[in-house]
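Researcher: Next entry in the queue.
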Amino acid sequence: MKILHVVGARPNFMKAAPVLRALAAHKDVQQTLVHTGQHYDDAMSGVFFAQLEMPAPDCNLGVGSGTHAQQTAGVMLALEPVLLERGPDLVLVYGDVNSTVAAAMVCAKLGIRVGHVEAGLRSRDRTMPEEINRLLTDQLSDLLFTPSADADENLKREGIDGAKIHLVGNVMIDTLTRMLPKASANSSLVNPPDTQPYALVTLHRPSNVDDLPWLRELLSTLEDLSEQLHIIFPVHPRTRGRLEELKSKSVSVRDNSARLHLTNPQPYLEFLALQRHAALVITDSGGIQEETTFLGVPCLTVRENTERPVTLTLGTNQLVGRDLRKLRSAAAAVLAQDSTRQSSTWQSSTRALQVPDPNRVPLWDGHASERIAEVILRSRS
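Model: Structure for this entry, 381 residues:
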């Protein structure tokens, strides 16, 4: 059986790595890995392949950045000849990035079966490009691998045949459980600071970072919060560009001040270590909502909605929207609760961390990729 995997951006890599590994255990499976190049610099791509122990891509389409239309069209044009040459029996696509929907559309036109890993998630907000990608990819897919029961319900509500839907669990958690010992073994990965509480911040969504007046107010909020604890903010390239625009307009940005640390994007292991030891995570990322839920780390999501409601009902996630007053009060509540559990001196290497609970969300147990492999092998008959 010939299986071709399509990945394009950092979130895809964490999802594809365990599936590649699970299928490699079957000698009658031949795998091809195609990297579209949607994320192309080493900080967002190459180092992840190395840390996740993924094989080098068999093909790199080199699509690069651009508008959504340019990027999607670029993947479609570059991928079609690869599919015609390789002739896969099944193409696996991951998550909700432009590369995902582009690959699904090309396969549908060529009559090649598609499997969608992380199917069925819905924010019900069609202003999000990712929501459009999810909707279209699921309609075109033959095998839909869902991470949670709410995803199954979404797909059935949209009229998708239940025989195509397979509740397998969350492959992101497969990667997290495998890599967590490596991230936790070296306390130097938590940097800076080693002996003080900190909040970890990530922001990359255009609806947030492209709104410069709001971004300016967010920075002011983080500067205020940094009076209570350190803030570590690995800055996504898109966000970095917007911060530079603010600087060009003579807006104060306290880059690398004493307690607000703006850093470059972090490799997977380093970022996982930072998440593991954080007092609080502030984000607009879907994957980080899932990881913090598994780790038991409080998470404040700077969005009005989430396609991962299970992180709200069973996890540690709260939606604060773009209301910065709500963000301030929610952060204060988390820190007040944490201060009752922790001593005044914070030692990240010995902190009484909450033990990850593999039963917090059903099937988030580190074995989703094995279940995916089983379904794929059964489906070929």
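Model: Residues 2-169+365-379 form a domain with the Rossmann fold fold (CATH 3.40.50.2000).
Researcher: Noted, moving on.
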